[in-house]
Amino acid sequence: MLFFIFGFVTWLNGSLIPFLRILCELNEFQALFVTFAFYIAYTVMALPMSMILRRTGYRDGMAIGLGIMAMASLVFIPAAQLGSYPVFLLALFGLGAGLTILQTASNPYVVRVGPAESAATRIAVMGIINKSAGVLAPLVFTALVFSGLADFNSQAIASLDESTRSARLDEVANRLVMPYIYMAGLLFLLVGLVKYSRLPEIEEEEVMETAGQYTGVWQFPQVVLGALALFAYIGVEVIAGDTIGLYGEELGLSNFSSLTSYTMVFMVFGYVLGIVCIPRWISQQQALVGSAVAGGLCVLGVIFGSQETSALATGLWGWTGFPVVPNSVFFVALMGLAHALVWPTIWPLALSGVGKFTAQASALLIMGIAGGAVIPLIFGKLAALSGTVIAGYWIALPCYLFILFYALKGHKLKTWPCSTRPPDGDKGVRR
After folding, report:
1. Helix segments in 243-341, DSSP class H
2. Higher per-residue confidence, 149 vs 46
3. I need a surface site. Which of 51, 63, 121, 239 has the fewest CB within 10 A?
4. Per mean pLDDT, which range of 68-72, 103-107, 144-148, 149-153 is the poorest?
5. No. of helices (H) and no. of strands (E), the chain
6. b (16+ CB within 10 A) / e for 179-191
7. 3-state secondary structure of 209
């Protein structure tokens, strides 16, 4: 249930971005402050939330996170009535803050609740639930907000006179009120459900520490580099899920508000592959290598693929019931399949052997989610400067290359190259 909530709230952004771009009359760079406000909360709030977790435990911490999200959902009501973009951003920051404590608690919980070698499989199961919600969120948003709206796009709104445009925008903005009231009510209900559930508290594993070697989480290279890899990954995940609607609208596709569902469907396929293959046929590290390589190839497909509908897209979507999309848009969606296993594989690799520093390590990894704030802004700037959304996808290529470095070498580093190693005779003590 928690991972479904993560997905539903997070992937609503893909529909909100083109919606708010039209509603608040923004350019691509301004519209992507939606992702900045949402994901920067993870960086700002991660360490404070980890301190809360140490006091409350994982279960009560999850309940607190849900309560924060419920209150933030109610902020969308005045934002819609005022038509104020800054108030929308404040509400999104609140949702991100609540999700921060939920993510900080739930991801290490899933890693520690079973054997380490199958941790990626468990996270992949959670990912299927998360991304299934991501498939539904744009469809629900479209049904509740866009139902009955004809010609609601930038060009149509710009063609109206001032008074008609203002009335039209007010009418559409008010459609946001009821969906977020429903969301707030559901979140408050979940607060009680989690608070009084029988979810067990997990015990941290012991860690073998060389005397004086580990005094903080920053001394674990696999954690620090893992946070940077997650920074890169979340950036490309958000680009694949949240900019596909912008790209579709630029190409004149009528179904641009629901295109995020395409990316989420592919991510679900990727998680299913992870459950089937890890660790039976491939290791967590091999899955991460394959994800990075496939992601880079998809970026090249986006940039150099056709912007016209052709046989490739027709053959893929013809049997699914999805509307056909141009090949270039298809490759944006396919990025979801390529990098689906990055999140499930980085977590167990990064948390291996950190023991009592698990809460701090989890908070640091969660701070990597700030990539979803920064990298899409760079995407938006590239798109705004070039005058076309497709130029922004170049930023995804170096991100996949860093993930490849972490898969091949970064996760194996247990001490920093410049650190002073203890004498060979010092075997360490168990703390």
Report:
1. 244-250, 260-277, 284-304, 311-317, 327-338
2. 46
3. 51
4. 149-153
5. 20, 2
6. bbeebbeebbebb
7. strand
- Residue 242: helix, strand or coil by DSSP? helix
Closest CA to 42 of 235, 252, 291, 257: 235
Please, what is the Cα angle at 114 between 224 and 221, to 5 degrees?
A: 10
Query: Using CA atoms, how far apart are residues 284 and 135, in angstroms rounded to an integer?
Result: 25
| Cα distance between residue 107 and residue 348, in whole Å | 10
CB 131 within 8 A of CB 7: yes
| pLDDT score at 93 | 93
pLDDT reading at 198 higher than 60: yes
Give the whole-angstrom CA distance, residue 427 versus residue 246. Answer: 56
pTM, rounded to two decimals: 0.68
Q: CA 241 to CA 332: how far, in whole Å?
A: 8
**Residues 213, 216, 221: CA angle, nearest 5 degrees:** 75
The DSSP bridge pattern shows strands 208-209 and 429-430 to be: antiparallel
